Amino acid sequence: MPMNRDDDSVMIDATRLFATGDPGAPFAARNATSALYDRYQDIISSKEVTWEMTYRLLSRLGAGGQGIVFLADRSGAFDVSFPLALKFYRPDGYPDIQTYRREMSRMARVNMETARIQQDHLIDVYNVVEYRGILVLVSEWVDGYDLRQLTTPKLLKQIKRAVEPERWSYINDVIITDAGFQSRLMPGVAIAIIRECLAGLAALHRQGIIHADLKPANVMVKQTGNCKIIDLGSAFLDDEYPLRPTWTPRYAAVEVLEGARHTPLSDLASLGYVLLELLTGKYPFAGVADGAELIAVKRDIWRRIPDLLPKDVARNNTLVQMLSKMIAPDPADRFASLEEADLSQSGASEIERQLVKVNMTTEVENEMRILMQEFSQVSTTDEEIRRLRTG
Question: pTM for the whole thing?
Answer without folding.
Answer: 0.86
